[in-house]
Design goal:
The N and C termini lie far apart (48 Å). It contains 14 helices and 8 strands. Strands 1, 2, 3, 4, 5, 6, 7 and 8 form an 8-stranded mixed sheet that branches. It folds into 2 domains: 43 residues, no CATH class; 253 residues, 2-enoyl-CoA Hydratase, Chain A, domain 1, CATH 3.90.226.10. It is of the alpha/beta class and 315 residues long.
């Protein structure tokens, strides 16, 4: 059963009423069909209207929903023939950032992305999607491999930020993030990045410095979390909703600011309510982008990427 968020309480109450009605009528001859139809139509309309007017903070909550599809879900439902590749050839393996060869609509690609996990055990295994230096160095290795074999790169970004632990700093976290960003910008092959959940800080930018950056409809992308921003500005995380509003973290804001290029629609109620449809929408958008990018020369791709980032913030 889908977990309801705080702002979804009216929808949850309607769904509870529908379940109670079904349970009370089970084995009874009373015709509750019309009443059920009315309540279900009301619930669907309420869901649609609620998700059509989400605040930035509410979108942040949706992007963090525990049932939202992650990298492995998209691997299963969007791509074919995924062959995982591990290790950075310097230190070890980082399960927060995964990658390998795959096919998208028959096209060979290099797929890289963050994996958060979907239960306690897998979240610990994948470090909640917070990459360590070896994860970013693995991403660099895979990008260089893609360049060598002429494969376009697709990245799926979903992280609250790079891992902030002391051991990560000791192993050169900042340098690894900078090198990964540099590797994205220097790629001789097309690159498309998609923010599928949270795009947090340098941990996201390190895999999202592409010539085409897309976002799922209810994803968020920012230099710092709303809670972190609120803690700095107001000394309390309770101001996170105000921070989210001011930071313009949503796909809709970022599209208007030309930080991203396209918004991929999600099923009504968020990607977690229909992961397969969300994966299909993602696949269609990626196929369309790669179709045009793969016709370009390496020099044109690099120039497009350079122009894109130099134009951000320009008058």
């Amino acid at each position: 059963m889908t977990a309801y968020l705080e702002f979804e309480k009216p929808i949850a109450q309607l769904q509870d009423r529908i379940s109670e009605l079904r349970g009370a009528a089970d084995g009874d001859d009373v015709d509750i069909g019309p009443e059920l139809d009315r309540l279900e139509a009301k619930s669907a309309a309420l869901m649609k209207s609620t998700y059509a007017s989400l605040t930035p903070w509410q979108k942040t909550q949706v992007a963090r929903h525990p049932e939202r599809p992650h990298f492995r879900d998209f691997v299963e439902n969007t791509f074919e023939e995924f062959v995982p590749l591990g290790g950075d050839r310097y230190y070890g393996e980082d399960m927060a950032i995964m990658g390998g060869f795959a096919r998208l609509d028959g096209r060979k690609i290099m797929l890289i992305g963050h994996e958060k996990g979907n239960d306690t055990e897998s979240r610990i295994k994948h470090n909640f999607g917070m990459g360590k230096p070896e994860g970013y160095r693995k991403a660099i290795r895979l990008m260089e491999l893609a360049g060598r074999f002429g494969l376009p790169v697709v990245t799926l970004v979903d992280t609250s930020g790079a891992f902030p632990g002391v051991e990560a700093e000791e192993r050169g976290q900042a340098e690894a993030i900078a090198r990964s960003t540099e590797a994205c910008l220097a790629l001789p092959v097309p690159m498309v990045s998609v923010i599928v959940g949270e795009g947090g800080s340098g941990g996201a930018v390190a895999l999202a410095s592409a010539e085409r950056v897309l976002m799922l409809e209810h994803a968020v992308y920012s230099v710092i979390s709303p809670e972190g921003c609120a803690s700095i500005l107001w000394r309390t995380a309770e101001k996170a909703p105000d921070a989210a509003q001011a930071m313009k973290v949503t796909a809709q804001h970022l599209k208007r600011l030309e930080v991203i290029d396209k918004i991929i629609p999600e099923p009504v109620g968020g990607a977690h309510r229909d992961p397969i449809l969300a994966a299909q929408n993602l696949g269609k958008a990626l196929t369309q982008e790669l179709e045009s990018l793969c016709k370009m020369t390496s020099e044109d791709v690099r120039r497009m990427r350079e122009d894109r980032f130099l134009a951000i913030g320009a008058d």
